[in-house]
Amino acid sequence: MAFKNLAIILLVTMATYLYFKYGHEAPDQLVQNFHITSDKNGHNLEFDFESPVRYLGHYPENQSDILQIKLRAIGFNDFTENLSLVDRFIPSSEVKNKLLEEVRYEGDVPGGPFIVVRFTKPMQFSIGESNGLKNLIVSYK
To answer: How far apart are CA 55 and CA 133, in angstroms?
Structure first.
């Protein structure tokens, strides 16, 4: 009897949590925001996501003019859009000053989703996650 009551309480608690966490209208795209910052070590591309994201890896390892970052969205939604994050979030003049040609989210490609960064010349870069799987930072110089 006590086990049954505990199971019911646990089920109601989980259902309430899931409702408030995921019960609202599902977001239509994965990338919520994208911006560029600079510091003494170079520039940073900062991605904010609507849903938790697992960073799976990137190619090439640490230097190139093209960087491909493989992601996996953790959630119930299918983020299969393809869009230019530069066109959506950043004025083109700011992008050119930061040595970028294009930054794209590619959700509807084989093996994806990916974030693809095209630099104007080969760059050294590193990737980091932050803020509970909802942010990704690409640092480059």
So the answer is: 8
pTM equals 0.77
Chain centroid to CA 68: how far? 12
Q: Is pLDDT at 19 greater than 70 in this prediction?
A: no
Number of domains making up the chain: 1
CA 137 to chain centre: 9
Q: Would 11 be classed as within a structural domain?
A: no
Which residue range is the domain that position 121 belongs to? 30-140
129, 49 contact by CB (below 8 A): no
User: Does residue 71 lie within any of the structural domains?
Assistant: yes
Contact yes or no for 103/116 (Cβ under 8 A): yes
21, part of any domain: no
Residue 125 located in a structural domain: yes
Q: How far apart are CA 141 and CA 125, in angstroms?
A: 7
Q: What one-character DSSP code corresponds to residue 112? A: -
**CA angle at 118 for the pair 114 and 119, rounded to the nearest 5°:** 145
Domain holding 56: CATH number?
2.60.40
Beta bridge partner(s), residue 126: 139
Q: How does residue 50 score in pLDDT terms, banded at 50, 70 and 90?
A: confident
